[in-house]
Each structure stands twice: as C-alpha cells, then as structure tokens.
Design a protein that fits this description.
- The complex is a heterotrimer.
- Chain A is an all-alpha fold.
- Chain A has 16 helices and no strands.
- Chain A folds into 2 domains: 52 residues; 218 residues, MetI-like (MetI-like fold, Orthogonal Bundle), CATH 1.10.3720.10.
- Chain A is 76% helix and 0% strand.
- In chain A, α2 runs antiparallel to α3 and α6 runs antiparallel to α13.
- The radius of gyration of chain A is 27 Å and the shape is flat.
- In chain B, α10 runs antiparallel to α13.
- The chains are: A mainly alpha, B mainly alpha, C alpha+beta.
- Chains A and B meet through α1, α3, α6, α7 and α8 of A and α1, α4, α5, α6 and α8 of B.
Chain lengths: 326, 316, 367
Amino acid sequence: MNDNVNETITEETQATPETAATPETNQTQESVLIAGVMHEQDIQKVSAKQNVVKIISKVAVYAFLGFMALVVLFPFYWMLISSVKTLEEYNRQIPTLFPENIVWYNYVEAFKTANLGTLFGNTLYVGLVSTVLSLIITVLSAFAFARLEFKGRDALFGVLLATMMIPGELFTITNYQTVSIFGWLNTFTVLIVPFLVSVFYIYLLKQNFMQIPNELYLAAKIDGTTDIKYLWKVMIPLALPTIISITILKMMGAWNTYIWPRLVANDEAHRLITNGLRNAFTEASGDVNYPVQMAAVAIVSAPLFMVFLFLRKYIMKGVSRSGIKG
Amino acid sequence: MKEFLIKIKFDKWKGWLYLSPAIVLLLVFTGWPIVNTLRMAFLEDYSSLGELSGTVYSFGIGNFSKVLQYKKFLDTLTNTMLLCVLTVPLSTLLALVIAVCLNAIKPLQKFLQTIFFLPYVTNSIAIGMVFAAMFNIIGVHNAAGPETVGIINNILGLFGVEPINWINAGSDYWANIAVLVVYIVWDALPFKILILLGGLQSVNKQYYEAAKIDSTSKLRVFTRITVPLLSPMLAYVVITGFIGGFKEYSSIVGIFGEGMGPAGADGRLNTMVGFIYDALAEQHHGRASAAALILFGIIFIVTMINLYVSKKKTHY
Amino acid sequence: MKVELQNLTKIFPSRNKKSGEEVIAVNDFTFTIPDGKLVGLLGPSGCGKSTTLYMISGLQQPSSGRIFFGDEDVTDLSPENRGIGLVFQNYALYPHMTVKQNILFPLQNLKGKDKMTKQEMLDRALEAAKLVQIDELMDRKPSELSGGQQQRVAIARALVKMPRVLLLDEPLSNLDARLRLQTREEIRRIQKETGITTVFVTHDQEEAMSISDMIVVMKLGVVQQVGKPQEIYDDPTNLFVAKFLGTPPINVFRGKVVMDMLYIGEDPVMKIKGVEDKDVYVAVRPEGFELNPKGKFVCELSNVEVMGRDVSVVSRHEASINPVIRSIINADSGVDATATNVKFSLKPHKVFLFDTETEERIPFEVK
C-alpha cells in the first residue's frame, strides 16, 4: 500500500521538471518575476541569454550522462561482441569494435567446457527450493512478529536485528564445522538450509504486514477465518510486491553466491553456476580462449538480465530498501 | 470451558510455534557460530580437527597477537583499507553527480536510470572475468611479443598512453589496484545511484522554487540545499559502501582468479575475507575466528564513526 | 435475540509493571438489551464502551461476569461461534478484494452443516448488498468507493451471515457531516427492516439520541444511566449525564436552597419544596429559559445569535460555571439585542438540582 503512495510521489515530482523545462512557461514566469525591476528590452535580452545558458547546460548534462552510460555498458558490449568473434580476430593487435564475421560456435564450446547444463540445473534447483522454503519461514515469522502477541516478542526481534550487524564471514567458520559434522558436505542441503532464514527479509515483510490495519485481522476472526487462511487470503496478497521483491533477490542470491558453495559443495554433481564458471576458466591472466570464456559469461548473465527486464520495478524497489547485493 | 482454556494456552504459544522454524535455524547457524567464534578465537592455536582428536587447548589471546603480527594479515589489511579509501569516496561522488544529472532531465530519464542500474544485476565473478579480458595482454608468454595489448590499452593508446601491463605476470601492484578500483566503482555505482536518486526525488520541490525566487546560483543550490537534504542518504551509501568494501573478495577473484594476484605474485591482492578463508582452509580455526572478530571490530568502529560524523553533519 | 450482560468486568493489567496499577475498563456492567432493539453505548473516550462492544463480540474476554445471547451463555465462545456481525470504525474492508468478494468472504468460512453452495452464497451476498443499496457496485474495489459506500459494504459484510447480534463501532465517525445524517437514518432503516438486535458505540450524543431505542451512558467503566433517549434527557440521574447530553450543553450554576427558595448566585429564581437548606448545582437546559421582564434571574447580555425559528441568547452570570449561558428562545418573543441586561424566568421541568459533593440528582417539587 505504501508503495503506491511512493509511486505517485515519484511521478508527481518527475512531472515538475518537465513543466519547468518548456520554454514558453518558463519565459513568462521569469518575466513576471523580474518585470518589476527591469525594462522590457532588458527582459528580452536576459531571457534570451538565460535560454542559451539553459540549452548549453542541458547539452552538457546529456553528454555527461551519455558518456557515463557508455562506460557502464562497455563491458557488456565487449562481452557480447567478443563471444561471437573467432579466436584469430579476437587476438589481433588492433581489436575490432565490431566482429568481421559472427560465429556462434563459442557458445557451443562454452556450454561443453563449463558443463553449463548441469550448472544451470543445479542452480535452478537450489534457487527454487531455497526460495520457496525461505518464503514460508519468512512469512510465518513476519506474521508472528507483526500480528501475534506473546511474551518476549519485541526482545526477540531486537536480538534478531542486532545479528544483522555481524559480517557473514564470522558465521562461516563455525557453519563449515557444523555442516561437516552433520555430514552435509557435497549435498544440495548444505547449499539450501544454512541460509533459509534472513533476518532482513523478516524485517522487511514485518514492516509491510504492520501497515495492514489490525481491524482486518479482527474482522476475519469474527468471520471465523483461521490464521493461516487469513495469512493466505489477506496478508500475502496485500504484501505481494514485497514478497516478489524477496523472491527475486533470493533467486539472484542463488545465482551469484560463490564463497560458500566453493567451500562446502565444490564437486561436479553439486556445483553452482558462478563457482562452475570460475572453475572452468581458472587461468585468468594467462592466454586463454577469451571468446569462449566471454560466451560462457554471456550465457550465465542472460537469465539475470531477462529477470531484470521483466521485473525491473520489483528489483529496484527491493534493492533500494535492502542495500545488500543479491 | 476446558476447550476454552486449551485455546488460551495455545494462543500463548502460537507465536513461538510460527517462529519455531526460524528460531531453530537461527540458533544453529547464527547463534551457535557467534558463541563458537568467540570460543575459538580465545583458545590458543585452536583447530577443530585437533579438538575432535582430543587435543585440549588453553585459553589465551595468542590468536589475536599472532594474527596482528602476521605479515600476510597486515598485507590483506592494507589492501582492504586501500580499496575502501579509494573506492568509497570515488563511487559516492560519481553516483551523486550522476543522480543529480538524472534528476535534472525528463526525456530519457527512466531509460538512462535502467542502464545505470544494469551492473547491479550481474554476477561479480562473471563480469570480473570480462574486465580481466579487457585489461589482459594476450601473448605475454609468447617470445615473439604480445599479440594484442587488449582493448583498454588500445583505447588509452588513442590518447597517446603507452600500453600498461595491468594484470598480467610481472604487472605493477598499483596497476592491479587501479583495475580493481575501476571495477569496484563500476560495480558499486548502481546501488548508490538508485538510493541517491530516490532521495533527490523525495525532496520537496518547493525548496528549489524558493531558491529560484531568491535567484540563488546553481552551485549554491547544490551545496546548500541538495547535499544537506540528501545527507541521510549520503550517510547510508557511505556506510554500506564501507561495510561492503571491508568485505571485498569476489571482485578480486573475478579478475585475478583464486590466486588473488597476478601470475607469479599469488596472494598479493588478498583481502581480509580472503585471509579468513585461507586460514579456514588450512584448519587454523582459532586464527580465522580471531581475524573474523577483528574484521567485525573494524566494521563496527568505522560504522560508528560514520554514524557519528553524519549525525553531526546531517541536517535533519 | 436478547443480549444479557451480567456483572461484566474487564481489567487490563497495567502497562507499567512497577506501579502494578490495573486499569478497570469496565466495572460490573449489568444490562439486558431487549430483542430487536437498537442500543447506543455512549460516553467520552476511555469510558469502556468499545471494550464492552469487543467483549460482546468475543474479541476480548471479560475478566469476570457472563454474557448471554437469549438463554445461551456465550462468554466462552470464540467470536466466529457467536453469530455476530461487527462493523469497524475504519470499515476494515479487504482492499484487494472487490465488494462482492468482501461480502462473500464470511460465507466462505462456514463449515459443516452451515456450508453453502456457490449459488446460495451469491444470492445471499446480493440480498445483503440490495439491503444496503450497493448492488450496483459489486465489482468495484473499496478504494473506488466513497466513505459512505464503504460503510454500506462493511454493513453488508456484517449482515450477510445473518448474525444474531449486529455490533457497530463508531460507525459514523469517519464520515462528513452531511453523510453522517444520511447514514444514520440508513442504519436505522436497515436495523428496522432486519429486526436484528444492534449495539453501537459512539461518543456523539446527538447521534446516539437520534437513532437509539435505548442509550447506555458510561463514564470511566461505570454505567451512569440506562434508558430511552428522551427519558435520559429529561431525567438525568447525575450531573455528568446532564452535561453529556444535549446541544447546546446544559447551563450549570452554583446555587443554594434557603428556606424553600432556590437561588442562583444571589438571585432567587424559584420557590421549591422538599429540599433542605444547602449549596447545590443548578442545571438549566437551554430551552428552559423564558424572557420575562419581571424575571428574577438577571444576566448580562453578550449577544444574540439568530438561528431562524429560534434565537440563541448568549449571556453571562457570575454564578455560571460554563463561560457563557446559552439559552434558546422563540424568535417571536422579541429580544432587545442592544440591552445590557436580560431577565429570565425558568421552566421548572427544565431545571435540575445536583449535590455539590456527589453530583447526584436532588429531586424537588415546585411550590
């Protein structure tokens, strides 16, 4: 619900610069402002001069943004064109900015070299299972914190928030020992279970749940709705944008996670995509077949880009509130 | 009546029931690690393998003093600090300028905003490999000389810069750092732009209109209105930037591989997080725990300093 | 369905654990709501009226006392098993559901022998919607409705289960003045048509008076008076009730009774009997004043507000507890707005005496 408010605010504020930018309205506004002080000829001169300044500064702003956009995009561009070059063309002394003849066999090669099929399957499996389980846990916890009353609730929540301060590396050392003792090394379980609970997601969803008026809960109680049904029929639909954001961030997390999988499940059968990619092309600074490597990177990056294109709104909203990468 | 009593009792426990999965997992994977890390850090030369085979470790602060005297650790500390100090101000400033520019335009705003966000939805290892490709000199091992000095050197060549050995064997430490700074800033921009632009768009336009009526200069508007009103967001991106900076690891793996340095200089670019994982891999659990606690301490102190400064500088 | 409250008490534990003071929200409330009547629980905020309503609904448990619906003791029943409908102050409509889905929602929860087919549910929902005249709006979302329409949807949702008792929590307080008038007539009509025993909570005495069959006036958890609106207005049991009911509010003066003569300040205003000599509060309804050149009650005239049929004479008197005295006089009686003083005589049945200590009513007869 809050999201809607934010959106309208953003749209309104965005509308303002546009009106200010149209020359006609601007001129009249400014003329009115200074008319009392200056003669009419002066006014025309001043406003003409101001227009020139305005245009120049606009051009400068666009030029700067355009340049920065190129800088941001260049690595992606380089990745894509390199992936369709022949090795001979790639290794030329003066690199070509556009491939002379486009070849696709690098992609086939990449798929084979990095065993991308298995990696995709593993990552998708781990991502889906951990997202679903994590959502269930997050929703139940957020509901308990937001709606149920019990002794020690606020104290417990405070303790949970405090743990967010601690860097994850501190947990990794012990968790590695723990999962070894559990016999979970080189299983999918080890990639899923230890990170199912995210205090931050619980916090995010709890805040969202709390915006839903308590009267809805009481009304549902009078209608004989069970807690679970209320959660399912009322709270989840109302908090859907947040839940989608969490889902995407969690999936992105599975896609990007590197350190933990390398530590606990680095065997062929359970390797995840990032890890597998780095593994397949270990010689980073030697003379490797870069077109193939770039093709592999392109394949790995593609799903994230697709998700981003379709769900841009949820990702950007989720990220702006989270401040954590994937 | 009995049924009613049972219901009341259940209501009292319902909250805990809903929380039970989260609590169990948190106890095992968050609560116990906190306790255990403290324990391991204060047991001399602790290793969990040793403990399993019956070795008894004595209490002491040896792990900390050893870590702090360890040249390897001090090097990782230097690397980490250096990257923080170089990348956080640079990326924040650049993000601020881009955000302000984006806020000033209307056509193409959404489009450009999306482009600037793109690096966020990438895998830092994967794109690190792209950066490595761009900076790489191909054929350094070739006696006949390089086949290509790479696209970056070629572009710089247009401005008359001699080819630089950025990341290959025999490259200079500072050249490595420069590449890392470029990559980390590129990687950090999207988040900062998103937050700052969000902040700018929520600033009440009336302040700007009032300033316009007072015919305040553009620069003055920026320093006296925009920056102060944006100070909470600036503080936020600086703090998260420092926290992320101190945990830097995978961008280096992306560019240099797990060797954490150019060929022939393995480990030269290692960071604190890397140090912790190396100690873990070598079964030095006590040392790894001590290093993790030191990392936590540094992050905590830097965050507190940042909060203190921004509280003094934040204008509302 | 008659609703019987027996010695209903609700004690909230203190928020401040150290002081350990408990808050008695409702204290020993005994009252029977006759079948098919509309009863208003009236009182200032914090008087326990909402707590009482929530206890009837089952959302809150009484600390002691029993609640009966008819002959059935429902005290230990959970809300959904009591057969009640509750309309919340902010309507509590589910924002993501259409009007139809909102009204259907309670029916979909019915289990066992009460379970209905889809068609039955739709019929019932339409029936309820027609009753509150929103059957045209069935496919809209709550955000597309006006406040008054949302209120009707909330009532339809509460009625659709055919509850034994309908409970309304401040049903009109979120509406603007004009809608409030319209909606309260609407509530009255719906209640009459369905004949459901209805309890509603309000802090607005005018609202309570205008639609209730009976009013319960509460203060700090204690019932002050129960009765028909007019009875309470004409015959308040204590100063609080007298002050709480009526617009403009009742005028209260410091006075005394000396040898069967009632004085306001030092002005002898009325000969009475049956009251021993003592200081009293004299309360006079605004319509209890009559212009009388020979009147003994002399006030300093401030101004005269024309209201059409009536005029409101605003004046001052040193014995008045209210800052000004407001009296409603027929416009034909010819008030001289320029005069410095105005002389009144009082209508005895509009005058009440209260004890200065207990603020309880002191009965008197006119001599």
